[in-house]
Q: What sequence folds into this?
């Protein structure tokens, strides 16, 4: 935070009591100014268009456009705004998606009193800030990512190609015809890769291939 210049904070949470509590925390610090508060995603996006904001403190579960949509659009259209997620959710799915969408920090609501001002200061300095439980979750996500990479590395080139073609929807006969090999051989390759990946259905193989960037996700 620049000396003598208050950091402008916009609050977005659909619970009035949460917003009031956060505002009370921040108003005790003259280096922070709450410039607005909203209770839904669309209002948050409109506020970003009209209110000069340095940090958006954002809940992820709100009516209308949810927090993830707000995060994504804020990062796309308001590139100087820092987004600090303040959520009750600490699960893998929420944390991983928020980080992927560009969140500058992620706090749990029960740590707001201790951590919120420090988190705002950190993101304003270009750093990231995560509550201790979120740091642990990030460690698990990174370890899981390493495990996925190791799984892919265990596949032979032919098994990777079988995975890609199965995920594209080709049948065993179609794959065999493309390579001029027997269906039995294709089935053997598929059995090997399913055993190595621990996946037992074509749907799960397809999800894995998409996640690893081996093919584009189906268009909606």
A:
């Amino acid at each position: 935070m620049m000396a003598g210049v208050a950091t402008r904070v916009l609050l977005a949470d659909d619970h009035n009591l949460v917003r009031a509590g956060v505002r009370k925390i921040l108003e005790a610090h003259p280096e922070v100014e709450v410039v607005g508060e909203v209770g839904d995603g669309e209002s948050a996006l409109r506020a970003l268009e009209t209110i000069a904001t340095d940090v958006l403190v954002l809940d992820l579960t709100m009516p209308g456009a949810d927090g993830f949509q707000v995060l994504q659009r804020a990062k796309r259209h308001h590139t100087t705004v820092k987004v600090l997620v303040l959520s009750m959710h600490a699960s893998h799915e929420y944390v991983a998606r928020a980080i992927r969408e560009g969140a500058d920090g992620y706090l749990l609501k029960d740590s707001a009193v201790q951590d919120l001002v420090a988190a705002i200061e950190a993101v304003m300095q270009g750093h990231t800030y995560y509550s201790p439980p979120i740091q642990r979750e990030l460690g698990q996500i990174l370890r899981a990512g390493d495990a996925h990479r190791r799984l892919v590395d265990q596949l032979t080139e032919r098994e990777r190609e079988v995975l890609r073609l199965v995920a594209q929807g080709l049948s065993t006969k179609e794959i065999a015809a493309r390579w001029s090999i027997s269906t039995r051989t294709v089935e053997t390759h598929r059995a090997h890769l399913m055993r190595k990946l621990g996946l037992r259905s074509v749907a799960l193989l397809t999800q894995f291939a998409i996640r690893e960037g081996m093919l584009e996700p189906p268009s909606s």
Notes: DSSP finds ten helices and six strands in the chain.
